[in-house]
Amino acid sequence: MRTMTRLMLVAVLVLAARPVTGQVALEFGTDAGVRVGANGTDVDITSFSVPIGSVRFGVHVAPHWSIENSTSFDFTSFENSTDLTLLRTDIAGLYHFGSNRGSLRPYLKAGMSYRFVDFEASDGEFGILGAAGLTWPVAKQIALRFQGGVDSMFDSRNEFSGLVGFSVFTR
Length: 171
Hints:
This protein is mostly beta strands. It is built from one helix and eight strands.
């Protein structure tokens, strides 16, 4: 697990250190959607996050490549019971098909994820993620995003997601 984490960190640093010509575009966004967690063949958690389930920050390092972080935090308090805290954060590289942000652009996403759950006992776990999506521009610096993906946690738990979001670009 440490080797995988180190390899991902090196890959992110290499992409980030690549010389970029011109001004770098930043992307700020948010996603809403559904996530279904499964441990083996049993579905053990389903979550709906509307209107804002997670926030994203991305840096476009080349015409076809970007690096982004997505983070969500949920806290639920139960009367006469233990509180539930969920933290989810991902770092990923995205390959965008086509370099024109003014048209529909499919993308592939791969990276590392971390989940922390605090409910009666605390547990943190790392995993890998993969997704495919589509960016649909609605204005010069605003786009809608549709994404489907899977997170495979190293403790054998998988999480499937379908997300819809919007992005704002700095240029």
